[in-house]
Structures are given as structure tokens and as C-alpha cells.
Amino acid sequence: MNTLNLKAALVFGLISVANAQNIPDAGTLFRQAEQSSPLNRQSAPLISLPPAPLNLNLNLDGDKKAIFKSFKFNGKKRINEEVLHAALVAFRNQEILYKDLHRIPEVIEEAYRQQGWMVKVYLPMQDIAAGVLTIQILEDAAGIGTAIKP
């Protein structure tokens, strides 16, 4: 009987020691995880910045004209290229005033919108003398590239 009491006292003693330990709260666990994290959060930006937009001085260049034989799309993944070319048919092989170039990204954004997507489109800095216009499409930027269809 004496050994039974000794064993019971030992078990209850171990249980009370185990219960006496401090259980860490969420804040402590978060700080420990942050300190041991191998990622250096300062090493790289969260998103890469796109190239600068087409640099035009509309006060000086607004009345100049360009003719585009073709269009090149960068960043396009969600919509078929033929759909985008069809949206720009009114701009192909036509004289376009530099001050009206803003309409091209608007037309591409509308083509995406009709397919159920919200994106950002712009004209990056480029040489347009060859008649090829490059159009940059940001489908996956923060908060952009969102489906709008239910």
C-alpha cells in the first residue's frame, strides 16, 4: 500500500509540475517565428515596378501622328491575342495623333472588362518609328487582374 501511495504522489507531482510551466501566447509564438524566419523581408520589393510609360510631351508632340502596322502585347495571359487585335482594328494602319494614344490602353482594358477581368494597361517607353506599338498589360499586379464575373 505504501508503494501505491508513493506512485500516486509521484504521478500527481509530475502532473502539477507539467501544469506549472508557462504556455506561450500567440504574440510570443509570432515573435519567435519572426526571429527564426530565414526570409529577409527587406531584401526584395513585394512587386516589381513596371517600366516607365511612353514619354510624350503633349504640348509639343500632341499634333504629331503615327501609323501602327502591328501591336505587341506584353503580360497577356488571360485573353486570346486575336481578341485584343480585333479590339484594335480601328487603330491599325491609321494615322493616330499622339494626343489620342491614350485611347489604345483604354480599348484593351475594355476588352478585358468584357471578358470579366479588371486589368491595368499602359504604353511603355519605346521607339514607335518602326510602326510597332508595344502595349504592357498588368494582369497580376496587387489588386489588379481580378475577375469581375460572378
Radius of gyration based on Cα positions: 31 Å
Instruction: Give the beta-strand count.
Output: 7
Mean pLDDT: 76
Supply the CATH architecture of the largest domain. Roll
Structural class: alpha+beta
Helix content: 25-40%
DSSP strand content = 15-25%
> How many structural domains?
2
Low-confidence stretches: 40-47
Summarize this entry quickly.
The protein has 150 residues and is α+β, with helices and mostly antiparallel strands. Helix content is 35%, strand content 17%.
Protein described:
The protein is an alpha+beta fold and 150 residues long. It has 2 domains: 2-36; 58-147, membrane protein fhac (Ubiquitin-like (UB roll), Roll), CATH 3.10.20. Helices cover 35% and strands 17% of the residues. The chain has 5 helices and 7 strands. Strands 2-6-5 form a 3-stranded mixed sheet, with helices on one face. A two-stranded antiparallel sheet has the order 1-3. The chain starts with a helix and ends with a strand. The relative contact order is 0.16. The model is unreliable at 40-47 (pLDDT under 50).
Summarize the topology.
Blueprint: H1 2-20, H2 26-36, H3 58-61, E1 65-67, E2 70-74, H4 81-87, E3 95-97, H5 103-114, E4 117-118, E5 120-122, E6 132-138, E7 146-147
Parallel strand pairs: 2-6
Antiparallel strand pairs: 1-3, 4-7, 5-6
